[in-house]
């Protein structure tokens, strides 16, 4: 029987950091459904937000975060993030993480959309996520108290009267079920943006952790707030490739096909307005002119600076025959799940001994729209808090009277899963994207119900995974239907105004 002090599900920065921290207190099982290098954290380009400069302050970081959150941020959660972020950065540096520096040795700080101060740390130019995640992977691999189980997909959280006791998984390599029991289970499975056809996320980022927590009795909130990154490289027939917020932070401009710079006059920060504003304006320009993309123009910037600051993006553009120092075609793509599993300030969910951290969680920081580069630092601040909380509860948690292991169904017919995923991606993209309306949302809800009925009586693990997709889609759609206003990452063309009556969270649970 696999028994551990900690079970961490998810191999992004939140999972890696939490597992490493927890390893000092006991044995850890780190479970990932894909390769450990495949996560949103790994592909994050822009950077990590934290106050490190003398002319900046946590209260300013707080103000920018709350402004971007459009009235739905939880004040105390934002204070926790902004006040504790510097300590987590200092900790990483003490462990040996190297961030980019200026010639004088001070940390190199960048500006991104929604920030009024340069406070974005980066590493390897535009490879911050890869550098931090790789650093944590190396740290985890060197820690004998952590056992890593790759290609193990979570199937069910094991719940009894004592709370969460572990997780049932499917081992794709060995084609067998594996059950893990633990004193504390931490979900760090990321978001759900890959449920859309055009997304900056790895194709495995489908919200399965959110669905599992929902099925286990957790509250899920604010799923209607889906952040679309304004500038993903337009590549017909290919996957969307993120063009970092930092490119606009260095001064790049947005133009439509008529050569008009359209963000001026829309927001005081122009191209550096919060992401929801920029993405929506790009979408409207595309729709108005019948185009599939707009242009991100860098021709007025220093080419040497661009190559040095954005080596990864320059290389990707070159592979596609594009010159990043000129102008490149971009269009919005689903990027970040703003809502998620409700937690308190220590990552606790409604189910005892079950935690959520990172993009899968809804801590109250993001509100209705995430401020750029707050995601990576959230992983550190709340990963630390999760582990600290387990210390205070250690004496009351025991691995006895565990629920009996019940064998599940095997995956047999992948067709049913792929069929539902393909249909959902079309529906979500066409009707639950940047701009929504009631007719489109109702049509998607009706179709989800039809697809769910098609799974009735199907005894196949692939049907369970398809059901997870439907749960996530249903939560997004229902939140969008119930919110009769436009706010942050949720825009209803039939309710275009922000309304005080909806300055509240949307929340759903099975209880």
TrEMBL record:
Family as reported in the entry's similarity comment: Belongs to the FAD-dependent oxidoreductase 2 family. NadB subfamily.
Domain FAD-dependent oxidoreductase 2 FAD-binding: 5-376
Record Gene3D superfamilies: FAD/NAD(P)-binding domain (3.50.50.60), Fumarate reductase/succinate dehydrogenase flavoprotein-like, C-terminal domain (1.20.58.100), Succinate dehydrogenase/fumarate reductase flavoprotein, catalytic domain (3.90.700.10)
Residues at the catalytic site: 275 (proton acceptor)
First-level EC class: oxidoreductase
Subcellular location: Cytoplasm
Protein name: L-aspartate oxidase
InterPro entries: FAD-dep_OxRdtase_2_FAD-bd (IPR003953), FAD/NAD-bd_sf (IPR036188), Fum_R/Succ_DH_flav-like_C_sf (IPR037099), Fum_Rdtase/Succ_DH_flav-like_C (IPR015939), NadB (IPR005288), Succ_DH/fumarate_Rdtase_cat_sf (IPR027477)
Catalytic reaction equation(s): L-aspartate + O2 = iminosuccinate + H2O2
Biased composition (Basic and acidic residues): 486-503
Location, primary (coarse class): cytoplasm
Residue span(s) of domain Fumarate reductase/succinate dehydrogenase flavoprotein-like C-terminal: 421-508
Parts of the chain that traverse the membrane: none
Function, as annotated: Catalyzes the oxidation of L-aspartate to iminoaspartate.
Region: Disordered, residue numbers: 486-511
Gene Ontology cellular component list: cytoplasm
Keywords: FAD, Flavoprotein, Oxidoreductase, Pyridine nucleotide biosynthesis
Annotated EC: 1.4.3.16
Cofactor list: FAD
GO molecular function: L-aspartate oxidase activity
SUPFAM superfamilies xrefs: FAD/NAD(P)-binding domain (SSF51905), Succinate dehydrogenase/fumarate reductase flavoprotein C-terminal domain (SSF46977), Succinate dehydrogenase/fumarate reductase flavoprotein, catalytic domain (SSF56425)
Pathway: Cofactor biosynthesis; NAD(+) biosynthesis; iminoaspartate from L-aspartate (oxidase route): step 1/1
GO biological process: 'de novo' NAD+ biosynthetic process from L-aspartate
Entries under Pfam families matching the protein: FAD_binding_2, Succ_DH_flav_C
């Amino acid at each position: 029987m696999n028994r551990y002090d900690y079970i961490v599900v998810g191999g992004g920065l939140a999972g890696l950091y939490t597992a490493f921290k927890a390893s000092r207190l006991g044995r850890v099982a780190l479970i990932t459904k894909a390769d450990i290098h495949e996560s949103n954290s790994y592909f994050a380009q822009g950077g990590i937000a934290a106050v490190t400069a003398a002319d900046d302050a946590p209260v300013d970081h707080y103000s920018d975060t709350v402004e971007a959150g459009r009235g739905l941020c939880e004040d105390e959660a934002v204070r926790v993030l902004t006040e504790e972020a510097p300590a987590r950065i200092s900790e990483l540096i003490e462990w040996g993480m190297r961030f980019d520096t200026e010639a004088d040795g001070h940390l190199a700080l960048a500006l991104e959309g929604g920030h009024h101060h340069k406070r974005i740390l980066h590493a390897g130019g535009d490879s911050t996520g890869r550098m931090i995640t790789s650093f944590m992977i190396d740290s985890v691999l060197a820690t004998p108290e952590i056992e890593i189980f790759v290609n193990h997909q979570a199937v069910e959280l094991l719940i009894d009267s004592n709370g969460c006791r572990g997780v049932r998984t499917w081992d794709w390599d060995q084609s067998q079920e594996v059950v893990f029991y633990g004193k504390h289970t931490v979900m760090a499975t990321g978001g759900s943006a890959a449920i859309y056809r055009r997304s900056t996320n790895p194709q495995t980022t489908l919200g399965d952790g959110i669905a599992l927590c929902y099925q286990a009795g957790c509250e899920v909130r604010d799923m209607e707030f889906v952040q679309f990154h304004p500038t993903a490289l337009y590549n017909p027939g290919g996957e969307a490739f993120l063009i970092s917020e930092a490119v606009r932070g260095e001064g790049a401009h947005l133009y439509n096909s008529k050569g008009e710079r359209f963000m001026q006059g829309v927001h005081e920060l122009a191209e550096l307005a919060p992401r929801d504003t920029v993405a929506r304006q790009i979408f409207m320009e595309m729709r108005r002119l019948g185009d599939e993309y707009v242009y991100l123009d860098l021709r007025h910037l220093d080419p040497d600076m661009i190559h040095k600051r954005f080596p990864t993006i320059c290389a990707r553009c070159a592979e596609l025959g594009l010159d990043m120092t000129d102008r490149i075609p971009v269009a919005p793509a689903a990027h970040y799940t703003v809502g998620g599993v409700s937690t308190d300030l220590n990552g606790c969910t409604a189910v005892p001994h079950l935690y959520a951290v990172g993009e899968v969680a809804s801590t109250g920081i993001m509100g209705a729209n995430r401020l750029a580069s707050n995601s990576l630092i959230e992983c550190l601040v709340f990963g630390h808090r999760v582990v600290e909380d387990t210390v205070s509860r250690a004496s009351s948690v025991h691995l006895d009277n565990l629920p009996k292991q019940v064998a599940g169904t095997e995956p047999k017919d992948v067709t049913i899963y792929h069929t539902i995923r393909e249909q959902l991606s079309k529906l979500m993209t066409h009707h639950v994207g940047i701009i929504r309306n009631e007719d489109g949302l109702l049509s998607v809800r009706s179709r989800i119900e039809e697809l769910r009925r098609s799974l009735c009586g199907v005894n196949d693990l692939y049907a369970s995974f398809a059901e997870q997709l439907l749960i996530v889609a249903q939560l997004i759609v229902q939140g969008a239907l119930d919110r009769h206003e436009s706010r942050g990452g949720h825009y209803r063309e039939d309710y275009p105004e922000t309304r005080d009556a909806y300055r509240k969270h949307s929340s759903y649970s099975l209880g």
